[in-house]
Every structure is written in C-alpha cells, then in structure tokens.
Specification:
five-stranded parallel β-sheet, 18 helices, 35% helix
Amino acid sequence: MIHLVGSGPGDPGLITVKGLRLLEEADAVVYDRLAPQALLRHVRQDAELFYVGKRPGDDQAMKQEEINALLVRLGREGKRVVRLKGGDPYVFGRGGEEALALLEAGLPFEVVPGVTSGIAAPAYAGIPVTHRNLASSVAFVTGHEDPSKGRTDVDWDRVARGADTLVLYMGVGRLGEIAASLVAAGRDPDTPVAVIRWGTVPEQRTVTGTLADIAGRVAEAGMRPPAVTVVGEVVRLREEGLAWYEARPLFGRRVVVTRARAQAGELSRRLEELGAAVVEFPTIEIRPPADFGPLDAAIRELDSFDWIVFTSVNGVGAFLERLVFHGLDVRAVPRRARIAAIGPATAGRVREAGLRVDAVPREYRAEALLEEISGEPLEGRRVLIPRAARAREVLPERLRAAGAKVVVPPAYETVPSAEGREELARRLETGEVDCVTFTASSTVENFAAAFGAGEAARLLAKTRVACIGPVTAAAARERGIRVDAEADEYTIEGLVRAVVGLFAARASQER
C-alpha cells in the first residue's frame, strides 16, 4: 500500500493523526523539502528514507517521473510506503500525477489529506481567508505553472472578479506581473495584499501592501519562495490584532536545548509554543547502568529503608522499571518509608506512580533537600538514593555526616553525546542561534567536552546562555562560559520564563 500523505504547511504539529500513525508504521518514506524534517523522528529506525528534493536547482532533486518510478518500485517490493508531501497532496502538490502512476501500475494507494498552506499560512499571519462581512468566497490559484506548456491556463480576468479573496501559491517571482493583470482585470490598485514566507514555522515572515506596490515591497524585503500571497480585504484584519503567531514572545528566536533527547520534549514543546525554533543538541544519552547489582540488592531490602530520595525524573523512572523487572510494583515500597524528591517535576513523577511525596525542598537542589529533612532524626536511619552513576556527592556525604546509613545504587548512567556538533558549531559561528539552554551541570560538562572548554566558551560568547539554576550556572562559569540568565525556580517552566525574560529585556533595551 502506498499512502500519499499531506504533512501540512510546515508546523509539524499540523499533520493529521492518521498521517502520523502511517508515518510511524511505514517501511519506506519518500519525502520532499517542504515536508517538516521533525516528522522524520517518528519514522522507525529500520525504515528506508528517500529524499527527493523538489527545489529548483537542488542537485538531489528527482524529476517527477523518477519519483513516480520510485513509488512504483517500492510498492512492488511489498513495502508500506508513505509519500510525505508538503501541504496537501492534491492542492498544487502533484499528488494527482503520482496517484495516476500508481493506478496505471496496478498498485493500491490511499490519499491522506493535509492542511494546505493556502489556509494555514494566512491563519498564522492573522488573516482569515473568509469573513462574513468581508469575504464570502475564496479562490486558490497557482502562480507557477508548468513552464513547458508555453502558455498560461490562468484566466486572470475571470479570477480577478471570481472571488473576494485570492490565495496565490508560488507566485513570488511573477508578483508584479500578476498584480498588474489583476488591476487590468478590474481589481482596485488599493486592494490589500500580504505575502507570507515560510508560513506556520518560526522563520515565518509577512510583508503587506497593495496591488499597486506589493511587488516593490517584496523585492525590497528580499522575500523569496516558498511563499503564498493573499489578495483581498481580509488582509486588513491582520492589523487589527489577529497576528497571534508573530506576537508570541519567542517568535523568530532560535533556541538550543541540550537535554537528553528522551527528556527534551517538555522543554522543546514549551519553547515552541512561545514561538521559538528549537534546535535539539542532546549532550547526554540516558542508558542503563553498567551493573544493576547494587540497585537489585537495594530492592531486595526495600523494607529496611526509612527514606527514599529521588533527585531526578530519570531516577524515578529507572527505579520503577527495575521494580517491574523483578515482578514488583509500587506496593513493594514500605508504607513506613518516607519519600523525598528534588523539584516538582520529580515529585510529580513519583505521584503519578501512586506514591506519596513527603518532602520537596523550596530550592530544587541537594543542599536544600538536606535542610528540608534535617528536622527528622537521621541517626541510624537508612536512606536509599537511586540516581545517576556519576553525580554530586553533597547529599550522600551530608546525610552520612548526620548519622544516616546511605545507599546510593546507580539506577542509570549518562553518556556524553556530540550528535550534530558540526552543524551546531556552524550555526553558533554564523550567529544563527539566539540562546543555548542548560538543564543540569552534566549538560554543561558534556557540551564543553564536545567542543573543548575553550572553544565552547568562544562559540557561546556569540549567543545568550540560560541555566536552570545556580549549580548549573556555576558549572558553566567554571568553564569560562558567560551566563546571561538563571531560572528563579529550578524547573523547566522556570527556565522557560528565564529565556522569555532574557529577550523581553533585550527588546526593552532596543526600544
């Protein structure tokens, strides 16, 4: 089965539920440049990927006939194939040509519609393509026809009078000619026009004008494809406050997340919700410990512990997974044992498992946790701390100094990662990155190790750096890295607020 799937206009969140499911199940994915690259993360590791380009001058681009032949070949090999196309397959996407080729080959196919850029890009730019008081009709027109035809099939006279709102795809190069044709056909030269480039993604840019001057404004702004053009009175609504997407506090900012890929989702999602373009550079990878022996021994002796202390979400997850490995669940945790967690995220993960949390420090670090439980008699108490194989020794040492018997079995280990190092170095060097975030001292250490401490400090001097708290910030400064913002609350949400505040302060200074 070959599935012609519309990936949507650029924002990976706009793919349909069905399209995403098919992508996850595919044996082979054939994608072009306008399909969001982030969607490829959902593809199975053993699936085949075929990039077919589709950009003029792209030396990796396939001709349409070659793409058709590739789909036929993969289909005949019995594979589940997803042809991932930008926007909607049947709206100026040449999906009809591919479907006909599959039909001729006798292969089964399915079309999964996608959100087309002609609706989505204007919506993200604050322009509804219809409005009860302004536009009761809309027409979608290509501004880039097949050059081999030697003629135009667009009757601009009829188009100009045929709908209140006109949405033009791929017409930036011929904008002056198209605008003149519309005016000649009777459209008022003062008709509002908006050109939206890279709609629905953080690189989105919008230029407005009228039919009389839009070509000059677009040329002056250096606008290039891909872009859609909206012609009609609805464009005026953008200036009335409907431009919600571009008004977000981090719109247009590129922010690097250095968290392990498995844990990056929450931070990346919050930054993207606020308009940032997120670059994930996982400096650590979470793996099982080299030896589960110490943790297994502690689990066999759970009844003997008075306190169980979790210092991270990873520690909670690893502990629970090991319980399941031994055929146990949270009922194995003795009712008399008290549980402490550093930070609300860690505490939340404990509560999700069905366990009570007895202590969460106001400051989410080891020293503050010790203060939180110091009111309890610790002499002779047994304390279990399932955590990373290598971590700060402040908490275990101070608990032992207070008379506690502390067991610290490795529940997981963090392994340095430098995936994407060269690309990130290029972006930092050219000033494409606005901010780099660090969520733990280990992310700082591994970032510095990936580039070398001196080089890391040099590269980061060209951008802004935000840290989740004082321990992480201290680790950065020890390596010569300037810290521009620290979270007031040592959580992901606190770090997000720090990043927003960083750019709000900059905007205020610029004004």
